[in-house]
Amino acid sequence: MADQNPNIDPDGGPRGPQPSLWPLGFAIGVACILIGLIVSVPAIIVGAVLAIVFGFLWVKELAHWGGADAHHVAKEAAQEEPHHETYDRSAFLTAGVVGIGGVIGAGVALPSIGFGILPSFVGEAVETHKVDLGPIGSYPEGQFVVATYMENAEVGEVSRRTAYVRNNGFTSGDNPEPSFTIMFSRCAHLGCPVQPAGLLQEQDTSTYKDVTLIPAVGVSGFGCPCHGGSYDKEGNVTAGPPVRGLDRFEFSIENGNLMLGKLYSVAKVESAGANAKIKKYRYQYPGTHVDGWESWLYPIPTPGT
Amino acid sequence: MAKSARRKQIEAVALYPVDWIEERTGLIGYHKWFLFRKVPRDINWMQTLGAATLTAFIVQAVTGVVLAMYYKPDPDKAYASIQHITDDVFAGWLVRGMHKWGASVFIILMFLHMGRVFLFGAYKYPREINWITGVLLLVLGMAEGFTGYLLPWDQTAYWATVVGININATGPIVGPFLAQFLQGGTQIGPDTLSKFYSLHMLVLPGAIMALIGLHMYLVVRLGVTSPPWSRTAAGRERAEGDPTAGHGAGRTGLIREPSSGEDD
Q1: Tens digits of per-residue pLDDT, B169-191?
Q2: Using CA atoms, how far apart are residues A81 and B176, in angstroms rounded to an integer?
Q3: What is the CATH number of the domain that holds B101?
Q4: What is the total count of domains within chain B?
Q5: Could B167 and A305 be called an inter-chain contact, meaning their C-beta atoms sit closer than 8 Å?
Q6: Is the N or C terminus of chain B more exposed, i.e. has fewer CB atoms within 10 Å?
Q7: Residue B253 pLDDT > 90
Q8: Share of chain B above pLDDT 90, in %
Q9: What domains are defined for chain A?
Q10: Residues of B with CB under 8 A from a CB of A
């Protein structure tokens, strides 16, 4: 008898519901709503339809399983008592209240959580801006220039950043191209600003729009005031806790002006200046390895890097 | 000692509102259960550290609410508003000082309280959940310290937060995402400040208050431990009709009770 009912264990106890794909569909629908909230309205509607349809099917299946169980119990009771309740009203009301409460709760919680978390990973928060660092003539060959600039002028002073720019002249080879070494001041240990070890020629300070340029002579490397990380002229770690070299900027030259492009991360630079061989890595947070086995600790890249 | 009729009358009048509330809410009995508890005879001053920590938290909550009336979480105004609070607002220097130094006091007291619980063995059965909620409270308290440190928006605050966020980023797999969530994008900016402000004054204090509620409920329910050097016997069965066997005594023998035989 018991074996014929798929919902009853051989030893008589009720079994959980059969594995079902409906919750998966429901979850996809909810994910669609969340993505739609950021991306587009039609996606919200599609997600809502998916969530409602699959949610309904899921609840129906659960109710069917619960019903079968109750039916079985009721059958046993029927042998002793002729007047039995065939329909479990209290279980239905409980499921109804929990279900409706869950839908209302999800309706409030999901957009709030999405609004709280997702903006950090999409849209304006992860945009990079090209920054105009002024005419390349203001960068004498073979000398570091400390350039401070606004990463995003709309945001104001909080976006002020520093880059160390060195004009390397031209690359050797058949098609010589202008070469610049542009390193971000952010330490690859925990993000403090590194300082050049050399003499700042503050009397020669020049400005271009929001950009301030201070030439430096005799720069032998860079040091970090926070935890003592130190780097050589190419940004390679020479001492201290940093796990990789200084990050660098891509650059372009537009109408004779040096334009800062995207940031990229560097593990180690071979050789120097215009002949430097650099393996570019996706831009990473400070303190995270870009090469070696430790880089396996960070398998999922964050958006905007 | 018989009370005069006049005195009984006065007592009845004075207690009438108390009885009125008790009959309708049961809250008077609850507060008696909460506040007037039996504790071991050889209880120690070290066991007041938890209440001291609670007091420190209340000081933080009260001063923080007042500071929030004058503070402006905007990169252009935050530092100026802190200066305004310190220099111009009446008693602002005092309230800000209480909040700033009280923050350190709160953290220090949490550690001392934790040390006391550890050394007294008060984390053992049946108080494990109290230890766990206590650890969560410690973590939340430290998070309060981290988020609050940014709010003055000076150089120390900014760079300490840069370092703190990037320490988060070094966590395996989710680290970079946690860092990006905390700074509200790929760079620290205006959103970082308002996010930290929201976490500091709404999210974390709310969680701390809820956990303190659970923590203190368990303290009352399970009772207070004797110091480890206590010479009074523990685990005694409660006598029939013992008043301590009702509220606050989930099991017999959780509270050490003095006995005439062993007590000096």
Answers
A1: 999 989 999 999 999 888 888 88
A2: 64
A3: 1.20.810.10
A4: 1
A5: no
A6: N
A7: no
A8: 65
A9: 2-120 (no CATH), 129-297 (2.102.10.10)
A10: 75-76, 159, 162-163, 165-167, 169-170, 172-173, 175-177, 179-181, 183-191
Res A170: pLDDT = 85
What is the per-residue pLDDT for A80? 57
Weakest mean pLDDT among A195-199, A264-268, A284-288, B241-245: B241-245
Within-domain flag for B12: no
CB contact A21 to B (< 8 Å): no
In this structure, are residues A187 and A221 in contact, taking their beta carbons and an 8 Å threshold? no
Please report residues of B whose CB lies closer than 8 A to that of A128: 186
Closest approach of B113 to chain A, Cα-based (Å): 32
Nearest to B49 by CA among B106, B103, B104, B101: B106
d(CA B63, CA B102): 9
Interface test with B, best of A158, A265, A289 (most B CBs within 10 A): A158
Closest approach of A126 to chain B, Cα-based (Å):
5
Which of B159, B172, B184 lies nearest to residue A125, judging by beta carbons? B184
Report the percentage of chain A scoring pLDDT > 90: 41
Domain that holds residue B168: 45-223
pLDDT at A99 over 70: yes
Question: Amino acid identity, residue A203?
Answer: Q
Question: How many Cβ atoms sit within 10 Å of the Cβ of residue B223?
Answer: 22
B179: in domain: yes
pLDDT tens column, B102-152: 999 999 999 999 999 999 999 998 899 999 999 999 999 999 999 999 999
Residue B236 corresponds to which tokens in the numbers above?
Answer: 């005694």
If you count residue pairs, one on A and one on B, with CB atoms under 8 Å apart, how many are there? 88
Burial of A41 (0-12, 13-18, 19+ CB in 10 A): exposed
B251 contacts B125 by C-beta, under 8 angstroms: no
pLDDT, tens only, A48-92: 999 999 999 888 888 776 555 555 555 555 555 555 566 688 888
For residue B76, tell me if it sits in a domain.
yes
* Contact assignment for A192 to B177 by CB distance below 8 Å: no
- Asked whether residue B23 is domain-assigned, the answer is no
Phi and psi of A283, rounded to 5°?
-60, 130
Say if the Cβ atoms of A120 and B187 lie within 8 Å.
no
